[in-house]
């Protein structure tokens, strides 16, 4: 499984990775909501920082302290705003004001709902969901699972994902399937199960697409035809577990490993 004819798909996949990574933080979604309220005129950074401080402190407008505003400004300028600009969700005008960009996400009612719903429980769930979607291979897995009703095994899913990531002219080698299977077991299946977008019976070794109330298939994008292994930045995931440990490509204890990782993810929320 090589890298033939994938540069355009790599770019689109990375772009969608960046988008969902930007959306996977409730503070950044709050910033988007503030800017949307002031677009197309835009909002100055100082005012945006002040509004952001009141939102994150859950205080009425103008009630945030000077320290809270300073902290909000630092977080805005050094953490959140660069990611939102990089994702193409916001733009900075020549005058230095911030406004929303012409992005497909703002035409999707489900994305808008995610941005505007500020309830704590929903925000926590959205952080996990968008974080799970911020990887081309995980979106490829969901693209493979969704159209076909029923369940499949880890091995079958790995084979299907490996084929899905390849160009039509490429053959899928057993080593490709083994590498994909290792990344599914140690990284991607636990994260998708934790996000509630797949149902996974570890004991029975069966996986199926879950009917998540927020996830939309169009979010997966056509870029899922080339997963992040072909982009080169997922091969480290094939060698390194979720906890950073090295591992063999075909573990004997994969069921216990997945169950343990899902439990760790759940307890960290």
Blueprint (SSEs and pairs):
Layout: H1 7-23, H2 26-38, H3 45-56, H4 66-86, E1 90-92, E2 98-100, H5 109-116, H6 120-133, H7 136-145, H8 154-165, H9 174-195, E3 198-201, E4 206-209, H10 228-231, H11 235-239, H12 254-268
Antiparallel strand pairs: 1-2, 3-4
Helix pairs in contact: 1-4, 1-6, 2-3, 2-4, 3-4, 6-9, 7-8, 8-9, 9-12
Describe the structure.
With 269 residues, the protein is mostly helical. The chain folds into 2 domains: 7-117, Arc Repressor Mutant, subunit A (Orthogonal Bundle); 131-268, no CATH class. Helices cover 57% and strands 5% of the residues. It is built from 12 helices and 4 strands. Strand 3 and strand 4 form a beta hairpin. The model is unreliable at 1-10 and 223-252 (pLDDT under 50).
Which structural class do you get from the secondary structure elements? mainly alpha
Beta-strand residue fraction: 5-15%
**Termini gap:** 36 Å
How many H/I helical runs?
12
Widest β-sheet, arrangement of strands: 1-2
Radius of gyration, taken over Cα atoms and rounded to an integer in Å: 20 Å
Tell me the overall shape. elongated
* Sheet of most strands: 2 strands, antiparallel
Number of beta-strand segments: 4
Helix content range of the residues, please?
55-70%
Descriptive keywords:
about 270 residues; two-stranded antiparallel sheet; 12 helices
